[in-house]
Fold:
Amino acid sequence: MSPEAAPRPAAAEVGAGDRALAARWRAPGGGAWSSREWEEYLALKQLVTASLRRWIGQRGRPGVFLYDAVGRGLAVVARLVWRVRPSWRRAGRPAARAEQGPDGMRLVLAGLPIPGNAGTTYGNTVHLWPAPEDPERARVLLNHEYVHVLQARRDGAVFIVRYLAGAWGARRRGKHYYWGIPYEVQAYDVERLLAAHPWLPDVWELPPADDAPPATRLAP
Ligand SMILES: [Zn+2]
Structure:
């Protein structure tokens, strides 16, 4: 069956924003998205719930600026430590620098993520270290962190409370204190889906308005 002949998802599953995205976002075979590609796309929309998507293009609730302040403060700390620690420079560690990321994200490269993590998100500010050299890995990681950006925009000041409560709840349910945190489960589900289907649009490309939610659960 050619992509053109493939059945389209039911009209009720797809809104105008989805169709606009499908018109400009290339699928692997080129041309119109096949029904399989629509399924993969709708799976992504299922993972990035409507309550999160409505914060795409928004700065977030007022409380998110608390985390931004922490992220910016840590960027200053990273630069100061780099200056006073010759060992970092000898080891070839670059100085921290800030870049504008997609949808209002502030990326601090060679920043100060929580040790053991490739990235840590503070509100709209994302600290990355080390920066992955593989562009696809870097893209997937950025999407993971962007899910946390949306979570923080939506939940504002209580984000950290829910994050820590999530860790505690995970332990109580016999799950891992990090992998079982609902915020992380959502971010890693998105990460895995994008890694499995690299053609999929970045999360910040999704239409924020959910005028027609998918009728069936497709993932994971
Ligand atoms: Zn995470």
Remarks:
- The helical segments are 16-24, 35-47, 50-53, 64-84, 86-90, 135-155, 159-172, 182-196.
